[in-house]
Amino acid sequence: MEIPLWEIVNVDQTLIQNKIWEIINNTIAQKILLVLICVSLFWKMIRYMCGLLHQEKEPVTVLVTGAAGQIGYALVAMIARGAMLGPNQPVILHMLDIEPAAEALKGVKMELMDAALPLLRGIVASTDVAEACKGVNIAVMLGGFPRKEGMERKDVMSKNVSIYKAQASALEKHAAADCKVLVVANPANTNALILKEFAPSIPDKNITCLTRLDHNRALAQISERTKVHITDVKNVIIWGNHSSTQYPDVNHATVQEKPVREVVGDDEWLNNDFIATVQQRGAAIIKARKLSSALSAASSACDHIRDWVLGTPKGSWVSMGVYSDGSYDIQPGLIYSFPVTCEKGEWSIVQGLEIDAFSREKMDKTAQELIEEKELAKSCLN
């Protein structure tokens, strides 16, 4: 019996439709399965990344010398709270002071313990320089001999040469190979130079001194004068020595992206009162509170190390006392304050800035003072 053609056609169409639907259904199922696999892998990746983010970092060991003093008392709590190395970086604090300050140092340790600081993973409080320097990654040198009434510069220098020679030798023997050093005690630039002399294995670029306090003071004066927030003022420079010869330079600085001289509109003030105010700010604070500027010095030390380790914001620089390589015709071998940028734990001197005659004179004057201090330190060593 013959099957009508139209029935054959209908049967074939039905088979074809069923086959198509089967293929479509299989394709959809495969796509759904593929999406589910991708989502699963993506979720595992997210969980893994979150695990890395929450994975605790290895503690960084930070040495603070002169830790029982005013600056040290302010600084150690800032470090332990993350102001220096960031809010997720655990720290171990090594605190060093002289024997007469041993009880005060013990009290500082007790207070740190009582503060129950989550980032603080350990405390060493010692009067033994070798013990204090053991394994340190960062050293903040606050300890030094201050100039007292009736003392000659050479007497003060002689005391500090002795102190920094001993501490440099201890760092040389006991600190981590990549230890970064910040000298705060005055004369900061020359103390850093002495330390470098007696810790030859510490790279030149790892020994610096604090001029960030002067840098911050300059920012504050411009901020107050122009009535803008301090974060709107950028790229002031402190050239030279952390002393009354330092040169606070605004020729490359900006206020809300405009040149400072244009915004201030008073070159007389910028070339005279502004410079003198920054140079003499420390003395003014001593006169006002009968004590030195401990809080701002501690805060600036945190700023210095934080930017050095974590990097400076793009498009801006900070001031650091660093080993001169001859940039801007400054004698190589001095610890001199330059404008620097920092990235991946390394600083670089900002190059190519135009220096006018007024600035040249100021920069050379403070360099000459550092040359004299260097020669004085040498004579004390000899």
How are the SSEs ordered, and which strands pair?
Blueprint lengths: L4 H50 L5 E6 L4 H11 L10 E6 L5 H13 L5 E7 L2 H5 L4 E4 L11 H22 L5 E4 L4 H11 L8 E3 L2 H15 L6 E2 L2 E3 L7 E3 L4 E2 L2 E2 H5 L2 H5 L1 H7 L1 H9 L4 H17 L7 E6 L11 E9 L2 E4 L7 H25 L1
Parallel strand pairs: 1-2, 1-4, 2-3, 4-5, 5-6
Antiparallel strand pairs: 7-10, 8-9, 10-11, 12-13, 13-14
Helix pairs in contact: 2-12, 5-6, 5-13, 6-13, 7-10
Defining key terms:
382 residues, alpha/beta, six-stranded parallel beta sheet, three-stranded antiparallel beta sheet, 13 helices, 14 strands
Describe the protein's architecture and organization.
This protein has 382 residues and is of the alpha/beta class. It is built from 13 helices and 14 strands. A six-stranded parallel β-sheet has the order 3-2-1-4-5-6. It has a three-stranded antiparallel β-sheet with strand order 7-10-11. The chain has a three-stranded antiparallel β-sheet with strand order 12-13-14. α5 crosses α13 (357-381), α6 crosses α13 and α7 packs antiparallel against α10. It starts with a helix and ends with a helix.
